[in-house]
Write a structure and sequence with these properties.
The protein is mainly beta and 308 residues long. 10% of the residues lie in helices and 30% in strands.
């Protein structure tokens, strides 16, 4: 099944649950350990106990804009003392975060099942996010040198992530989004679903069955249908929550419908979680680019056969 689709858009989310950046290309991390898009979910906003804030508990994060230098998404680029991440939000002055690693550390940082230490970005970002969210906050950065966070071994043994919910990549097709929007009174943009890779040129929901695929000579495996939380119901333009698109998706994308022979848990699926099978090293820099073809080499027989 060659040339099943092409990469239409690529999104990187430097701060978990804040707005993403649409980029023409995204290099994969060159450490060989954390094979994800560089800068993706590398930062996290936490509460006074070190627990992660997400849009589930702090929907105002949806309005936080993040900018990185354009060159940060080119192969081999390294930050200097003059390289900054720019953070903006309604009613707030711009916050600049140096891309060089901070000296401070924060212990007891936790995301879902994982806990460990992280690099602490310091007092100014802490005050900025505390003022913006109206509750005690800190901005921390994943410490690749000292911490390890594993993907669920039941789905992808041996793979590691930073502050993503569970997997290093989320893929969605434009066909699936269009099919959903044809059923909604008010269409929703792709930012409701926060994919890393948006592809076009395939049938709606065909990505459900993609077991093994290549993009720009990189091998990806589809390891789990993406079960959706409440975030898709949050309007990313004003941070308000509604009932759609989840209410509509329940009618035809629930586990009860897609996996009728298995016990229903009330889940709704939209998109596919991926891992990259390559070992990315300093001498083997690789990127995914808009326009790259996606070639499917192995398929699940049905949604019921795919992991979820």
């Amino acid at each position: 099944m060659e040339g099943a689709a092409r990469v239409k858009s690529i999104y990187v989310y430097p701060i978990k649950s804040c707005r993403g950046i649409c980029v023409p290309q995204a290099p994969l991390t060159p450490t060989g350990m954390y094979v994800c898009f560089r800068w993706d979910r590398q930062w996290l906003v936490v509460n006074s106990n070190g627990r992660a804030y997400t849009q589930r508990t702090a929907p105002k994060l949806a309005l936080v804009d993040v900018e990185l230098p354009t060159d940060a998404f080119t192969d081999g680029w390294k930050p200097t003392n003059n390289s900054f991440m720019l953070i903006k939000a309604p009613g707030m002055a711009q916050l600049n975060i140096s891309l060089t690693k901070p000296n401070g550390t924060a212990d007891g940082v936790s995301v879902w099942e994982w806990s460990g230490s992280a690099l602490d970005e310091g007092a100014q970002p802490s005050k900025w996010f505390s003022d913006y969210l109206g509750k005690a906050s800190r901005l921390v950065r994943f410490n690749e040198e000292s911490e390890t966070r594993m993907v669920d071994p039941d789905y992808a043994c041996g793979h590691k992530i930073m502050f993503s919910d569970g997997y290093p990549f989320l893929l969605l097709s434009q066909g699936s989004l269009d099919a959903l929007n044809n059923l909604l009174k008010q269409p929703v943009p792709v930012n409701r679903f926060r994919p890393n890779i948006l592809v076009d040129g395939c049938e709606p929901y065909s990505e459900d069955l993609w077991k093994e695929m290549t993009i720009n000579k990189l091998t990806f495996h589809g390891v789990k249908l993406c079960s959706r939380c409440k975030v898709p119901t949050i309007n990313q333009d004003d941070a308000t929550a509604g009932r759609e698109p989840t209410e509509t998706l329940l009618n035809y994308r629930s586990d009860k419908v897609l996996r009728p022979t298995q016990k229903s848990q009330g889940k709704v699926y939209f998109g596919q979680n991926l891992v990259c099978k390559e070992s990315i090293t300093e001498g083997k820099r690789m990127s995914v680019k808009v326009g790259d073809s996606l070639n499917v080499h192995n398929l699940f027989a049905s949604c019921a056969d795919a992991a979820a």
